């Protein structure tokens, strides 16, 4: 999948709490975050996640995660690769990612 | 406002993380929780909160908060009064309420 424009990002420092909670309160996005948390940075392309949604919906979910300061993306040749913004998100919302990553 | 049936509750122990996050990821519900947190238990009736929604929507928001283990309600004469389930929610999701109550 080739992307024309570079993705827009929001730094966690600029993210309201409600945006973060809303981003994480969705099963697909929770799964994306959890898979990213156990993957090396910049190794996961958008299509590599085990979530039951089509490309347009997936693209929307990644856009929500970027806007919530949770995910950073960059284009690597034809692929868009991802990393979890763990440290900076943790600093903004201490304990929230830990809660999400401990499972249920 | 008189209620026919007693409200149904879910104990925080039975609440999935995603249900809690989704319940809190809404501006009206966040406001309800924050106002409850600074009120004495069982002193706030459903109509006493400073939120810009009508009765039917408010009733839905309280139902979401009960299902997320965040709020307990009981009928006190003609009023339905509320308390935040602070201790038991905290035990289930440590740190989450603190994050919500610290403001933005």
From TrEMBL, chains A, B:
<protein>
    <submittedName>
        <fullName>ArsR/SmtB family transcription factor</fullName>
    </submittedName>
</protein>
<dbReference type="InterPro" id="IPR011991">
    <property type="entry name" value="ArsR-like_HTH"/>
</dbReference>
<feature type="domain" description="HTH arsR-type">
    <location>
        <begin position="9"/>
        <end position="104"/>
    </location>
</feature>
<keyword id="KW-0804">Transcription</keyword>
<dbReference type="Pfam" id="PF01022">
    <property type="entry name" value="HTH_5"/>
</dbReference>
<dbReference type="InterPro" id="IPR036390">
    <property type="entry name" value="WH_DNA-bd_sf"/>
</dbReference>
<dbReference type="InterPro" id="IPR051081">
    <property type="entry name" value="HTH_MetalResp_TranReg"/>
</dbReference>
<dbReference type="InterPro" id="IPR036388">
    <property type="entry name" value="WH-like_DNA-bd_sf"/>
</dbReference>
<keyword id="KW-0805">Transcription regulation</keyword>
<keyword id="KW-0238">DNA-binding</keyword>
<dbReference type="InterPro" id="IPR001845">
    <property type="entry name" value="HTH_ArsR_DNA-bd_dom"/>
</dbReference>
């Amino acid at each position: 999948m080739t992307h024309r424009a570079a993705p827009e990002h929001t730094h966690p420092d600029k993210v309201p709490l409600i945006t973060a909670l809303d981003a994480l309160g969705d099963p697909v996005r929770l799964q994306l975050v959890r898979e990213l948390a156990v993957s090396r940075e910049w190794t996961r392309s958008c299509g590599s996640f085990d979530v039951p949604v089509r490309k347009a919906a997936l693209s929307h979910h990644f856009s929500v995660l970027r806007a919530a300061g949770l995910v950073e993306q960059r284009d690597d040749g034809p692929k868009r690769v991802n990393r979890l913004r763990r440290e900076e998100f943790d600093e903004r919302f201490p304990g929230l990612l830990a809660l999400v990553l401990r499972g249920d």
